[in-house]
Amino acid sequence: MPKLAQRMSRAKPSTIMLIADKAKKLKAEGRDIISFSIGVPNFLPGPHVYQAVRDSLDKDSGQYGSNRGNAALLDAFIEHMKGSGLEGYGHQNCAVAIGAKHMLYNLAEALLDEGDEIAFPTPYWTSYVDIAEILGAKVKLLPCPPEQRYKLSPQQLDEALASKPKMFLFNNPSNPTGMVYTKDEIAALADVLVKHPETWIVTDDIYNRMVFDGVGYHNFLHSRPELRDRLIFVDSLSKTYGMPGWRVGLMAGPETVANAVVTLNSNHITNVPEITSVAALAAFSGPQDVPQAKCEEFAHRRDLVMDALNAIDGVVCPRPQGAFYAFPDISFAFGKSHDGKRIENDLDLCAALLESKGVACVPGSAFGEPRGLRISYTCPADQLEPGMQRIQDFFAELT
Question: Domain 6-44+290-396 is of which CATH architecture?
Answer without folding.
Answer: Alpha-Beta Complex (3.90)
